[in-house]
Amino acid sequence: MKQASAKKDVVLIVDDSPDTLSMLNDTLDQAGITVLVALEGAQALTIAATITPDVILMDALMPNMDGFEACRRLKTNRDLAHIPVIFMTGLSDTESIVKGFAAGGVDYITKPVKGDELIARMRAHLNNARLTLSARVALDNTGTFLFSATADGNLLWATPQAYHLLEDAGLNSTWLDENLPSQLRQLLAPHFNKEKGVLVKAADKPLEIRYISQTGNDEYLLQLIDMERPSDLERLRAALPITERESEVLLWIAHGKTNREIGTILDMSPRTANKHLEQIFRKLNVENRTAAAVIALKHLPS
């Protein structure tokens, strides 16, 4: 039987220079990468919305819509915000480098672009983006309503389940824009007791926003709680003699995740995840992951 060929990475190059486009196209094509091309920012957004690339190489300065504005708009689209954007800039163009990071870029390369360096940087960011996206999908598939925001209350991303829960509570996009930031600023204020959470008065059902952790210089991971039903974590805590953190690890063990995947999801090292797992084994009087998962699944809804 003929094996299916591996999926090729797709890169969108956004640049108005024919020479740069030609060089990058040849370099990426030789590396087995599919190339899409846009000549300015607005065109890039249209292409990305139609054929979602795995990574975007963005020139900083272009006519019409420049790369900074294109990146900012990309990051406001929840279906495209996960795509890593690498800016291309002049050797001593420090201002563009700073503006690129502020707009949401993950890295920059200097012109003239070196092919080997470009491929290496792209591969690293592709792997990181896929691992992060995989963690978000895992969180969403288990009904964990997570989102992230800045200290100013700006929503950065949210799992689809989190958006659905907000909609079920009667909170629309206008409420997210006008009311959510003030509540997030309250929760993320330095003096606020992060263990308390913030209650959200919604028309259709009560919600609570809880602080999880700081995941970046100005990025905070938060959780939405449906106050009308117990979460899987609460079910495990109520039924088993384990701590809150151990219940989080056990939940992901029950969903078949490795220590590395658990570390990514819970923002801990694989070694720390293993130490929690050792405590779980001892408290549940089991010897392996499978036995622990079986006990956990008995207390979770099918």
UniProtKB/TrEMBL annotation:
Origin: domain of life: Bacteria
Modified residues (4-aspartylphosphate): 59
Signal peptide: none
HTH luxR-type domain mapped to chain residues: 235-300
SUPFAM superfamilies: C-terminal effector domain of the bipartite response regulators, CheY-like
CDD domains per UniProt: LuxR_C_like (cd06170), REC_PA4781-like (cd19920)
Coiled coil: none
Protein's UniProt keywords contain Chloroplast: no
Keywords for the protein's UniProt record, in alphabetical order: DNA-binding, Phosphoprotein, Transcription, Transcription regulation, Two-component regulatory system
Residue ranges constituting the Response regulatory domain according to the UniProt record: 10-126
Annotated protein name in UniProt: Response regulator transcription factor
Species whose genome carries this gene: Zhongshania borealis
